[in-house]
Automatic annotation (TrEMBL):
Recorded superkingdom: Eukaryota
CDD domains: ATP-synt_Fo_a_6
GO annotations of cellular component type: mitochondrial inner membrane; proton-transporting ATP synthase complex
Name the UniProt record assigns to this protein: ATP synthase subunit a
Record field: transmembrane: 12-31, 69-89, 101-118, 138-159, 171-199, 205-223
Substrates-to-products reaction catalysed: H(+)(in) = H(+)(out)
Length: 227
């Protein structure tokens, strides 16, 4: 029973063929594609409004050179929301519960922001490692601490997304199992547990969207520091 709770996080395999690539590709099919018509349908109009509004709010504090990242970060947020939301459906797999995938997204993007800062403004980028007015005795210690915190950023991005989604999925499965076991024994308690499960599912829908937004928002803050 203990092992079965974690089976949902195993990478799906069919006839020895890993289906991770398929799980990452299918969400893009669900989005309506833009047309050349002057008037679009309601779904496409809502999608365009949402993407435009999100990009505007995300890049408002970022300098103009950083606006080149708008397409990349907006696409990444939509991609993460799709994977997180589809993972809440029954008999589906959530790729973003895999730490390897999240680190594969976090490390290159974080490294790109750091390299951009080192190329465009090396003095300011290195200045973040040592706050102004630091006492002389604390300079070596603060440089080490700030360097460690800099390299922890991509790890925090990947672990945060993985831990939140994994904890939510485990909690849903535990409560659903409890409701199924209690139904023939204590129907009233089972109904109350089912209501709790429904509320928790709504919470997980919000978490799925919020975590995707936080992932992209932190990347935009790292970009803002280096542009």
């Amino acid at each position: 029973m203990t092992l079965s709770f974690f089976d949902q996080f195993m990478s799906p395999v069919l006839l020895g063929i890993p289906l991770m690539a398929l799980a990452l590709t299918l969400p893009w099919i669900l989005f309506p594609t833009p047309t050349l018509r002057w008037l679009n349908n309601r779904l496409l109009t809502l999608q365009n409004w949402f993407l435009g509004r999100f990009a505007h709010e995300l890049f408002m504090p970022v300098n103009v050179p950083g606006h080149k990242w708008a397409l990349l970060l907006t696409s990444l947020m939509v991609f993460l929301i799709s994977l997180n939301m589809l993972g809440l459906l029954p008999y589906t797999f959530t790729p973003t519960t895999q730490l390897s995938l999240n680190m594969g997204l976090a490390v290159p993007l974080w490294l790109a922001t750091v390299l951009i800062g080192m190329r465009n403004q090396p003095t300011e980028s290195l200045g973040h490692l040592l706050p102004e007015g630091t006492p002389t005795l604390l300079i070596p210690v603060l440089i080490i601490i700030e360097t460690i915190s800099l390299f922890i950023r991509p790890l925090a991005l990947g672990v945060r997304l993985t831990a939140n989604l994994t904890a939510g999925h485990l909690l849903i499965q535990l409560i659903a199992t409890a409701a199924a076991v209690l139904l023939p024994l204590m129907p009233t308690v089972a109904i109350l547990t089912g209501i709790l499960l429904f509320l928790l599912t709504l919470l997980e829908v919000a978490v799925a969207m919020i975590q995707a937004y936080v992932f992209v928002l932190l990347l935009s803050l790292y970009l803002q520091e280096n542009v």
